[in-house]
Every structure is written in structure tokens, then in C-alpha cells.
Write a structure and sequence with these properties.
Largest sheet of chain B: 2 strands, antiparallel
CATH topology of the largest domain in chain A: Rossmann fold
Shape of chain A: elongated
Low-confidence stretches of chain A: 256-267
Number of strands of chain A: 16
Number of domains of chain B: 3
Strand content of chain A: 15-25%
Helix content of chain A: 40-55%
Oligomer: heterodimer
Number of strands of chain B: 4
Distance between the termini of chain B: 54 Å
Helix content of chain B: over 70%
Low-confidence stretches of chain B: 258-262
CATH class of the largest domain in chain B: Mainly Alpha
Number of helices of chain A: 17
CATH superfamily of the largest domain in chain B: MetI-like
Radius of gyration of chain B: 25 Å
Structural class of chain B: mainly alpha
Chain lengths: 431, 557
């Protein structure tokens, strides 16, 4: 495919957002991707990795901070031509019927009444909405709504179809049906779209649909791997090739998230941000590992617990950060401390948690600061300052919430909502 | 058969409205008389009522246009927003009488020999008591269109107008309709002053329900007063049945929630409209026209890129607005320098008096309406029965009842100093009641069920559940109530009855007196003092409390 000229090219794209606490979040950094005619490209990555942002930058919906987007070799200003979009939340207008929702995009494109009627009828037939023309969005199921979203895009006959997590709000069966229908429509070379860009966090989905899979990593903010998918269509979710490729994507995905072989000494923990995971979830993970004899293959955890990999991945990272587990190649093992934490009674669990917390540089730092402060208390803004210093690229508001949650569970310190200050708990102070 | 009956009825209504409106136009363009005699005979009352209604509706149309333009402008241009919204905050806290003399004198000077000037002034004054909350509603709605629905409009290249018509207007319509109902009710509040007032030695009067009432009051003619009150009630019910209720029903299809509605309100007039052949005919004609326009656009093919034309218009208008503002400020300053230090100090004292009344008034409203609102809102049965009744009662302008109340006060020997608090209460209590009811209805039922399952007693339920659940709503209600109380002080602290003037010291009566005596410097100073205090209280107390309560007591955790 790369013998053809790319339709769209993103060069060194970077995107920063101002964080609500001040400071800047780097969502994307130096991302390069290109879309060619006649292919389906998928962008996959954990939630919050900036994949939807990347799609919107390519579409021209939001401006990039650095880098440039080229359309057929020319620098692009504003919206990408010949592109239609399908949204995660469907983005149907509730005050319009199914038919009106499709019609307006043709009206906006200045199509005559006669032609509009013809195209809308065709699109409705193609996407299986016959009989629903006069229904309002609130009267039809999620799957039907997304059919409207797809019909609305196809009716404009775009060269490129951009889909932002189009099936993530649908149930598994409906999603599967729609995936294969979209792929079939794309495979018909006589009609557009010629290129589909799909954003997803579902590995099976991207392996089923895409020719190329672009993996974005959390916190790394750039492309970590591009996987070619040459499995012939129609693809079978259970074929050996399919499963092998799923494994391969998993590996690339996992490679970013959970590589470390040795439990890290405290020094290496510096700069690793806190994860939005509750102690109970970590206990849940340890419980699960315990049932499997204290160790399990990293890629079996997701399917067996019915969790998305990005969710599992952050739980694993958190547990690893606190030394409750270690990960050797692909095997996740409970550590001694993890076993202790799991089997202890309620009060001792807090104690285990606290000991592990204090191995984290950020908690050590904050405890020191609190000890040296008058009456062992500090204002919220002071602590946010410390967080910003420690994690310049993280959202301090989120880090703050986790910090307080974790610290509270370990009885390390207490946050007083009225007055917005934190005090060290007594026994921690004496220690 | 039913459909033909619908048509007959509809055409009958339209003809009646047409004839009435024609007669109003005659009055509108008629020559200016020095003194308009108001005939208190019952025979003339329908015509007067119709005149007042026409003014109210014309003012409403004006409010609608203004709120759409201003709300859209403020929501779209980030720079203009910074000026437009604070400006709106100030405008809405300017008391009614603060604008009246300026507007009236301006228009009467422009149209020396016809009624147009005075009529326009009355309409614009009514507009000023309708428009602000509608504008805030539109602004807020346009800003909160869900991101993806907006992105979809961008991705499919809707023009500004298309985005407005297909996305923003339908999205704003629901809040616009509710605000319209409130605004229309608020518009009647100053009806009596609006149609009959004196500036210095000039007596301005327009034939209408308000002037009818004020003449009846000045003559002490109790039967005519009662007639006027009944006419007002009929007017409110008429508008409710023929305008608001059908609109509310129609707006159901604009709801954002994508679930089916749980209960349906009925409107017989909406069914008439739905059945009538003539409406169907008009609708199909509209479709034709739309299709014709679309085909013409299709022929012209390319969408014109107007570039930054919109932005340019916005910025130029902003500059003009700011220049006008500076000129106005200059004039006001000229008036203000004539006010002596003693007078300023006096104003400070009066302000404190009225402030105390406002606080007591709001406090009393909460004390009465909070339990009542909870009781009604919590009972499905009472809510269903009372909600429409309360809605109509609340639309009734309390000012029409003032003379009756003042009569009662004088019988009971209550001075106006305290009586004015009751008068203010008449107008402000509804804001609290409505918000409390809305808040308790919005509370998820599982919270109630949880409270019941834990066997909270009445006291615990009240403090642990109901108060936190309705707190943001209560603050919204208090915000509107305190603003309304300040504005009502003008008429509550200064009441005319049977040609005698009852007044009690306060910033409200100071404004009324200054307007009455043509003392414009003092008027400007009193108005300024009131505006400054109201704006400061709104920003420093209520908005802070509101933001706090939104964070602390949000139910969507």
C-alpha cells in the first residue's frame, strides 16, 4: 500500500492541554502517522492516551500544538476534506427523526431535494434502517442509533471515514454485527469510503477490522508500535492466525505497560505517577492471583475477569508500584508482602498498605514536609505544589485525589475538607 | 368532523385576535392626548385587557429576539463574552423605575404628536422586566451543547445559520420556553406603573388593564378593582391555555434525554392545532418553500466562505456598545456630581433599611415556602393537583393586590415599614417555592428509599437528605428572590391609595419619590447605590454559595 501517495499524513504532531491546576499536560508528543487509500487503520491504546485527540487533529476538528497535517501533500488548514465522522456517543440530534438526522448533512452540503431523497433512501436501505425512518433517536436501540450515525456518514460518500470508538457503547453482539457490516461496505471497491480510520481500545475489534494497527502508549505519548495485519478477509475471531495476532498486539500493548522483571528499588520509583486504582481493586487482584496459585499469565487476566486490558494494566502497575506483585516476562506473581496484605485482618491491612506507601518517594517527601510543618499540617495548595514538582507531566488534580485516597486508607494523613488542609496522623508523626 | 370543528374554532380565535390587534394598532398609531380618560365601566374592560396583552406580547417578541441575539453573541465570542455577561448582570439589577424616566422622555420627545412614543416606552419597559433571565438561559444553553453534537455539526460543515437552526436553537428551546413563562409573569408585575405614571407635573397614561386598576385604586372603587383582578386572572389563564401549554407539549420532543417520557401533560388547544386542516396546509406550504430554497442553493452549488465576517461584526458591535456605555456613563456622572454628601449619607441609611427588609423577606419566604415546597414536591398526588394552580397564581402580578393589602394593613394598624415586607414577600416567595419543588422532584428516588429503609425520622430526613438534595436549587431560588425583593421595594415602600401616598423610608421609596419629583440626580444616585449593592451581593454571596453547593451537593456522583 505504501507505494501509493498517502491521503493524509501527520508529521511530528504534539498536543498540550492546560491542566486545571495550572501547568501543561502533554497528551501527544511527536506522533507520525499516514493514511493511504484502500486501507483500514486502527489506533489503539489505553483510555486517556490521546487517541481520540489524535483522530480529531487529523480531522481538523481541533488544532495541534506542534507539527503539521498534510492532505495530499498540502498543508491542511481547518477541516479535512472528503472526510465524514462517526462518534462514540452517536451525536444524533434528538429533535430530529432518523431520516431528518441523515438529511441534514446533505442539506448542509447543498444537495438538491430530488438527489437528497434518492441518496437518503439508498443509505437507509444499505445500513438496514428501513422502517425506522420516522422514529426519533430516543425510540430506537443503541445499535440502531449507531447505524444512523454510519448512514449519515456514508450518505455523503466520503473518501475517508473516521470512527471514534464507534462500537464501545454497544453490547458485544451488536458491535460484532456492525463491525462486519462496515468492513463489508468498505470492501466493496466501487463505492467509498476508501480509507477508514478507527479509534478503539478493543484488541479483537482492531484485529478484526484493520490492515494496520497503531499502538499508542500511556504516558509515553507517542506511537509505540505499528502492526501490519495481513489476515485475509472475512476474518474469523477464532482462527489461529487471528488469535496469534491478538497475542502480538497484546504483547506490544503489554510491552509498554508492564515490562519490569525485578521489583524496583525505591530510587527507581521516583517519577512514577500514582494510578487511579483503589486499594480494594488491588485486593481483588491479589485474591484472583491467590485462586490461581499466586501467579497467572498477564494476558489471561483480562478475559477471565471481563475487564479491558487498559484497566487491568493500571491495576497491575499500581500493585507493582507498591511491591504487592512482581511481573517476570508475562507471568504476574504475588510477592510476600502481597500475600501478607491479602491475608491480614482489616486493621493490619491498613498497616501493610502504609508501609508500602512510605516506600514511594512522593509519600516519603510529603510525610517529611508534614513532620516539619507547624502542627504537622499543610494546606492543600502546598501539597499540590509538591505533586506538580514530582510529576510535572501529570494532572495534579487527579494525582491529588489518588494521593488523598491512598494516604487515607493507610492512615498516613487526614485531609480536612473544611479548611482544605492535611494533617499527619499521630502515630505516623512519632515514628 | 372533529378536524373541521378544530378549523372553525381556530379561525374564530384568529379572527378575534385579529380584530383586537387591529384595534390596538389604531391606539398605537393614534394621536397623543394630553390626558387619557379611563372608563371604569365593565364594557370597556375587555378592550383594555386586550391592549395590555398586546403590549405584553410585543414586549415578549422583543425579549425573544434580544435574548437570542445577545445570548448567541455572548456564547460565541470569547472576548465579547467578557463584557456582555457582566453588563447583563448589571442591567438586570437596575430597578424598574431607574430606566423608566429616561426611556419615556426619550421616546415622547421623538414622537411628539402620536401615541407611538408612549406605547413604545411602555413596551420597552415591559421588555426590561422580561428579558434578562431569558438571555441568560439562551447563553447558558448554547454554551452547554454536548461536545460531540457540536463536533458533528463542524465535521459536516454546517454553516453558522444551519448550526443555529438545527442544533443550538432546538437545544436552547426547552429552557427558553420555561424562562418565557417566568418572564411573561414577571412582565405583568409593574403593569400598573407601566401604563399610568407621573413624571414631575406630566401625567402619562395609556388605556390598559394597569391604568384601569390604578384609576380604580385612586378612586377607591372596590368593585372595579375586583373586576380588574378577575380580568387579569382571565388573561393569565388564556395565555396559559392557548400559548404556553401547547408550547410545553410541543417542546417535549426537544428533550435531550434519549428515553421515552414518563408522563404526558395534556393540552386541548394543542390537539386543536394538531387536528386543524389549516395548520396542516401551512405546514406543507412551509415544506414546499424550504424545498424550493434548498434547490436554489443546490444550483448555486458552492458554499460561500464568509471567513471572519461574523467575528468582525461582533467586534465592531462590541466597540459601538462600549462607546454608548461610556457616553451613558458620562451623562450619569453629570447627574451624580449634583448629589451632595449629605444626600449620599442619607442614601446609605435608606439602603440599610431596605437591606434589612430584603433579608427578612427572603428569610420569611424560606421559612414558609421550604416546608411547603417539600410537602408538595414529595407527594405525587398533591404535586399533580397543585402544580398548575400554583403556576397560574405565581403568574398573577402581586402589585394588583397591593391596594387591597394596604387597606387590610390600615385596618389592622400595621405600619408600611413592616407591611412593605409582606408586600415584597408577595412577589418573591414563588421563586423559592418553585425551586424547592423542582429540587425535590429531581432527587433520585433511591435516596428516599434508602432513607426510609434506614428508618430516618422526619427530622433526620429533613436535615440529612432533603436539605442537601435541594440545596443548589434553594440557592438559585434565593438568588432570584432577593433580586426580586430589591426591585419590589420600589412599589412596596411607596404605595398610592385613594389619592393619598403611603410611604416608608427606604431606598425603594427614595427611587419612587425621586422619579415622582423629577429629581433626576437623586434618582440616578439611588439607582446606582441599589445596583452596586445587588451586584455585589449576587457575586460575593449567592454565586459563591451556588458554586460551592454545586460541588458539594451535586447528586451525580
Amino acid at each position: 500500500m505504501s507505494d501509493q501517495a498517502p491521503l493524509v499524513e501527520a508529521k511530528e504532531i504534539g498536543k498540550d492541554f492546560p491542566s486545571p491546576q495550572g501547568g501543561i499536560l502533554h497528551v501527544l508528543k511527536k506522533v507520525n502517522i499516514a493514511l493511504y487509500p484502500n486501507e483500514i487503520v486502527a489506533i489503539i491504546g489505553p483510555s486517556g492516551c490521546g487517541k481520540s485527540t489524535l483522530l480529531r487533529i487529523l480531522a481538523g476538528l481541533i488544532p495541534q500544538t506542534t507539527g503539521e497535517v498534510l492532505y495530499q501533500g498540502q498543508e491542511l488548514h481547518g477541516l479535512l476534506p472528503d472526510m465524514c465522522m462517526v462518534f462514540q456517543s452517536f451525536a444524533l440530534y434528538p429533535w430530529m427523526t432518523v431520516k431528518q438526522n441523515i438529511e441534514i448533512v446533505l442539506k448542509a452540503a447543498r444537495v438538491s431535494v430530488e438527489e437528497m431523497e434518492k441518496k437518503v433512501t439508498e443509505a437507509i436501505a444499505l445500513i438496514g434502517l428501513v422502517g425506522f425512518e420516522e422514529a426519533y433517536p430516543r425510540e430506537i436501540s443503541g445499535g440502531m442509533k449507531q447505524r444512523v450515525g454510519i448512514a449519515r456518514a456514508l450518505v455523503r460518500n466520503p473518501k475517508m471515514l473516521f470512527m471514534d470508538e464507534p462500537f464501545s457503547e454497544l453490547d458485544a453482539f451488536t458491535a460484532e454485527t456492525l463491525r462486519s457490516e462496515v468492513t463489508k461496505i468498505w470492501a466493496n471497491k466501487d463505492v467509498n469510503p476508501s480509507t477508514i480510520l478507527l479509534v478503539s481500545h478493543d484488541i479483537h475489534e482492531v484485529v478484526f477490522m484493520a490492515d494496520r494497527i497503531i499502538v499508542l502508549g500511556m504516558n509515553s505519548t507517542s506511537v509505540r508500535g505499528i502492526i501490519e495485519n495481513k489476515i485475509p478477509r472475512p476474518r474469523d475471531y477464532r482462527s489461529a492466525d487471528f488469535l496469534k495476532l491478538v497475542e502480538q498486539v497484546h504483547d506490544t500493548y503489554g510491552h509498554i505497560e508492564a515490562p519490569s522483571a525485578e521489583p524496583k528499588p525505591a530510587r527507581e520509583k521516583a517519577g512514577r505517577p500514582l494510578l487511579s486504582v483503589t486499594p480494594d481493586t488491588i485486593l481483588g487482584l491479589l485474591e484472583y492471583l491467590n485462586r490461581h496459585g499466586g501467579s497467572q499469565d498477564i494476558f489471561k487476566i483480562g478475559p477471565e475477569t471481563h475487564q479491558h486490558f487498559d484497566k487491568i494494566s493500571s491495576v497491575l502497575q499500581a500493585a507493582q508500584l507498591l511491591d504487592f506483585i512482581d511481573i517476570v516476562h508475562r507471568s504476574v506473581n504475588t510477592t510476600e508482602k502481597g500475600k501478607g496484605f491479602l491475608t491480614a485482618n482489616r486493621e493490619d491491612q491498613h498497616q501493610y498498605w502504609k508501609e508500602q506507601l512510605l516506600t514511594l518517594p512522593i509519600f516519603a517527601k510529603i510525610c517529611d514536609a508534614l513532620k516539619n510543618a507547624p502542627e504537622h499540617s499543610l494546606k492543600r495548595s502546598d501539597l499540590i505544589g509538591i505533586l506538580k514538582e514530582e510529576f510535572p507531566h501529570q494532572d495534579p488534580a487527579l494525582q491529588w485525589i489518588i494521593l488523598i485516597h491512598w494516604g487515607h486508607y493507610g492512615h498516613v494523613f487526614t485531609y480536612h475538607r473544611v479548611g482544605k488542609y492535611v494533617t499527619l496522623n499521630n502515630h505516623s508523626a512519632n515514628k | 368532523m372533529r378536524r373541521i370543528l378544530s378549523d372553525v374554532f381556530l379561525i374564530f380565535v384568529l379572527v378575534c385576535l385579529g380584530v383586537g390587534f387591529f384595534s390596538y394598532l389604531q391606539q398605537f398609531f393614534g394621536p397623543l392626548h394630553d390626558k387619557v380618560e379611563i372608563d371604569l365601566s365593565l364594557w370597556h374592560l375587555p378592550q383594555y385587557t386586550f391592549f395590555s396583552m398586546s403590549r405584553g406580547l410585543l414586549a415578549y417578541v422583543l425579549s425573544l429576539l434580544f435574548s437570542l441575539v445577545w445570548g448567541f453573541w455572548a456564547a460565541k465570542d470569547k472576548v465579547a463574552e467578557k463584557a456582555l455577561i457582566p453588563f447583563l448582570d448589571v442591567l438586570q439589577s437596575i430597578p424598574f423605575l431607574g430606566l423608566l424616566p429616561g426611556v419615556v422622555l426619550l421616546f415622547v420627545t421623538i414622537f411628539k404628536h402620536s401615541n407611538i412614543g408612549l406605547e413604545l416606552a411602555a413596551i420597552i419597559m415591559m421588555f426590561t422586566s422580561q428579558v434578562w433571565n431569558m438571555t441568560f438561559g439562551v447563553y447558558h444553553a448554547i454554551r452547554t451543547v454536548p461536545t460531540e453534537k457540536n463536533e458533528c455539526a463542524t465535521a459536516y460543515r454546517f454553516s453558522h445559520f444551519e448550526r443555529f437552526r438545527w442544533v443550538e436553537l432546538p437545544f436552547a428551546a426547552l429552557s427558553l420556553i420555561w424562562n418565557s413563562i417566568m418572564s411573561m409573569a414577571g412582565g405583568w408585575f409593574f403593569l400598573m406603573i407601566n401604563e399610568a405614571f407621573t413624571l414631575g407635573n406630566r401625567d402619562f397614561r395609556l388605556p390598559g388593564l394597569g391604568s384601569y386598576m390604578s384609576v380604580a385604586v385612586s378612586l377607591g372603587d372596590v368593585p372595579s378593582m375586583i373586576n380588574a383582578i378577575i380580568a387579569m386572572i382571565i388573561l393569565i389563564v388564556f395565555l396559559d391555555q392557548l400559548l404556553w401549554r401547547p408550547l410545553v407539549i410541543w417542546s417535549q420532543k426537544l428533550r435531550m434525554e434519549e428515553t421515552a417520557p414518563t408522563k404526558r401533560t395534556e393540552s386541548w388547544f394543542f390537539n386543536v392545532l394538531k387536528n386543524a386542516y389549516c395548520i396542516a396546509f401551512i405546514r406543507s406550504a412551509c415544506t414546499r418553500v424550504n424545498e424550493y430554497i434548498q434547490d436554489r442553493k443546490a444550483k448555486n452549488d458552492v458554499k460561500k466562505d464568509r471567513g471572519n465576517l461574523g467575528l468582525a461584526i461582533s467586534r465592531v458591535s462590541l466597540c459601538i456598545l462600549l462607546i454608548l456605555l461610556i457616553i451613558a456613563a458620562f451623562f450619569v456622572m453629570q447627574l451624580l456630581v449634583q448629589v451632595s454628601l449629605d444626600e449620599w449619607l442619607q442614601l446609605g441609611k435608606l439602603l440599610l433599611l431596605t437591606f434589612t427588609r430584603v433579608v427578612i423577606c427572603v428569610g420569611l419566604s424560606i421559612l414558609i415556602m421550604l416546608p411547603l415546597g417539600l410537602a408538595i414536591g414529595l407527594s405525587e398526588k398533591w404535586f399533580r393537583i397543585l402544580e398548575p394552580i400554583i403556576q397560574i397564581t405565581a403568574s398573577f402580578p402581586a402589585t394588583l393586590l397591593f391596594p387591597v393589602l394596604v387597606l387590610i394593613f390600615s385596618l389592622l394598624g400595621i405600619s408600611l415599614g413592616f407591611g412593605s415586607i409582606i408586600l415584597m414577600l408577595m412577589g418573591t416567595q414563588w421563586y423559592i417555592l418553585f425551586n424547592v419543588m423542582a429540587g425535590i422532584r429531581a432527587m433520585p428516588s433511591d435516596l428516599r428509599e434508602a432513607a426510609a429503609s434506614f428508618r430516618f425520622n422526619r427530622f433526620q430526613r429533613f436535615f440529612w437528605l432533603y436539605i442537601p438534595a435541594i440545596f443548589p436549587y434553594l440557592i438559585t431560588g434565593v438568588l432570584s428572590a432577593s433580586g426580586g425583593a430589591w426591585n419590589a421595594s420600589i412599589v412596596a415602600e411607596y404605595v398610592t391609595f385613594k389619592k393619598q401616598v403611603l410611604t416608608t423610608p427606604g431606598i425603594g421609596s427614595s427611587i419612587s419619590l425621586a422619579a415622582q419629583n423629577n429629581n433626576y440626580p437623586l434618582l440616578a444616585a439611588s439607582v446606582l447605590v441599589m445596583v452596586v449593592v445587588v451586584v455585589i451581593i449576587n457575586y460575593q454571596v449567592w454565586l459563591r454559595l451556588y458554586h460551592y453547593s454545586e460541588k458539594r451537593f451535586a447528586l451525580n456522583v
